[in-house]
Design brief:
40% helix; 9 strands; 265 residues; Rossmann fold; alpha/beta; nine-stranded mixed beta sheet
Length: 265
């Protein structure tokens, strides 16, 4: 399967995207979290590419891209992401966000709802139980102990490439953003995913988000931490593919649905 890479500029801000997998009507777009890059989506990308086109992005200031001169808040980054979807002419998008990528995905879907078919929100932040930067740091430290060496290495190296200035700028926006309100106003069917050992996106918090959403399904992957899309990529891909359904239509439950994976991977 061919892979295409390109750097594009939207609203004066540089992004990098990579596409792989067979041409299809539906496209999975994977949106990384704060400090991160497309690299920690590699296992999920490879698992999803069997069922459609997969696009990974590096947002402005991340993945080695230049730090923007402007102070971009969550809606601003979301609009840039939506602009990238238009520039790439992507339609029937399943927008998959992880961690702070959830917030950017929600804002991109709000900015251009006609292109975003559904939302997959993995490890959504910021948990109401720890909204301050200090509390977030503690949750991340706990998660680091639970993660495997490979994702920890990716996280630390990407944090270095991002740099503390841009990280802290975005962390301030992350902790002030109202994720619950954003999910409540989203018009797309939504899948929430978390590892059941994730201290960053706690169980009660994710259940609260599911209750706030109009159409939502919740899947918890057993014995997995915050970076569940890396450590249990096959299980996460299965949940996404089951949720998205065949190309003829999306599976949209009439009421909230919960599934729990028994994976011990």
């Amino acid at each position: 399967m061919s892979t295409a890479r390109q750097r594009i500029v939207i609203g004066g801000q540089a992004l990098r995207w990579e596409a792989c997998g067979p041409a299809s009507e539906r496209t999975y777009v994977l949106v990384h979290g704060i400090g991160m890059s497309h690299r920690y989506f590699a296992p999920l990308r490879d698992a999803l590419r069997r069922s459609g086109r997969v696009v990974t992005v590096d947002l402005p200031g991340f993945g080695g891209l230049p730090m923007p001169h402007d102070d971009l808040d969550v809606p601003a980054v979301g609009r840039i992401l939506a602009g990238a979807l238009r520039a790439l002419d992507l339609r029937r998008v399943v927008l998959v966000g992880h961690s702070m990528g959830v917030q950017w995905a929600l804002e991109a879907a709000r900015a251009d709802p006609t292109r975003v078919e559904s939302l997959v929100l993995i490890g959504p932040v910021v948990d109401a139980a720890h909204r301050t930067l200090l509390a977030q740091a503690v949750a991340l430290a706990v998660d680091t102990v639970r993660e495997a060496p490979a994702p920890n290495a990716l996280v630390f190296s990407d944090y270095l490439r991002c740099g503390p200035r841009w990280y802290l700028t975005q962390a301030r926006h992350m902790t002030s953003y109202d994720t619950e309100a954003a999910i409540a106003r989203a018009t797309q069917p939504t899948l929430l995913v978390r590892g059941d050992r994730d201290p960053v996106a706690g169980e009660q918090w994710v259940r609260r988000l599911r209750a706030a959403a109009g159409e939502a399904e919740l899947v918890e992957i057993a014995d997995q931490p915050h970076n569940v899309q890396y450590t249990a990529a096959r299980e996460v891909a299965d949940a996404i593919e089951r949720f998205a359904g065949p190309l003829g239509g999306l599976v949209a439950p009439e009421r909230p649905v919960e599934r729990r994976s028994t994976s011990t991977r």
